[in-house]
Amino acid sequence: MNQFVSPFVSQALVNEHRIHRKVFFDDTDGGGVVYHANYLKYLDHARSEFLSVRGFELSVMQHKDDIMFAVAEAHVKYIKPARLSDQLIIIAKPLEASRVTLIFAQQIWRADGVQQPQELLLDATIKLACLSASRFKPVRIPDAVLESF
C-alpha cells in the first residue's frame, strides 16, 4: 500500500473516494463559472486518488508496469454551475470492472460550511480502458487493481 497520501485527500472509504477542492479564478470562464472541461479534470483527480490511496500510483504503473488508463467514455450531466471560491467535494465510486475496463460513478457537490455535500452540481459515469503505455493497445487490468475495485 502506498505510504504517501496526497494532502488533497480528505476521505477514503472502501466503496468510494472523496477529495475536496476550492474553485480558483483560473478554473472559471468569462461568465464567472467553472469552465465545463475543468469538471473532467476534477473527476480525473478523484479517480487518480482513488487508485493512489489503494497503492496504485499511476506514474509508477506507467513506467514500471507499462500500464495506463485512458478515458474510453464519459457521460456527464451538468446540473448547476460551480463558482469562484466554492468548496467542492468530488466523489469517485467504483461501479463495474471487466478484464480491460473500469467504470466509475462520479459526482461533484458544492460543500457546506463543514465540508459536507450540500448541492449536487454534476453527475457522471466514466469508463476507463486499460492500455499498454508503450503501444496504446488494450491489456488486462492487473488482478491486484481488480481486487481493490
What does this structure look like?
The protein has 149 residues and is an alpha+beta fold. The chain has one domain (9-148): Thiol Ester Dehydrase, Chain A. It contains 3 helices and 6 strands; from the N terminus they run ββααββββα. It has helices at 36-52, 58-65, 143-148, and strands at residues 9-12, 17-22, 67-78, 87-97, 101-111, 117-132. Strands 1-2-4-5-6-3 form a 6-stranded antiparallel beta sheet. The chain is elongated and about 40 Å long.
Work out the count of structural domains.
1
> Which stretches are poorly predicted, pLDDT < 50 over at least 5 residues?
1-13
SSE order, as H and E?
A: EEHHEEEEH
Distance between the termini: 14 Å
The CATH architecture would be: Roll
Helix content: 10-25%
For CATH, the homologous superfamily is named as Hotdog Thioesterase
DSSP strand tally: 6
> How does the overall form come out from the CA principal axes?
elongated
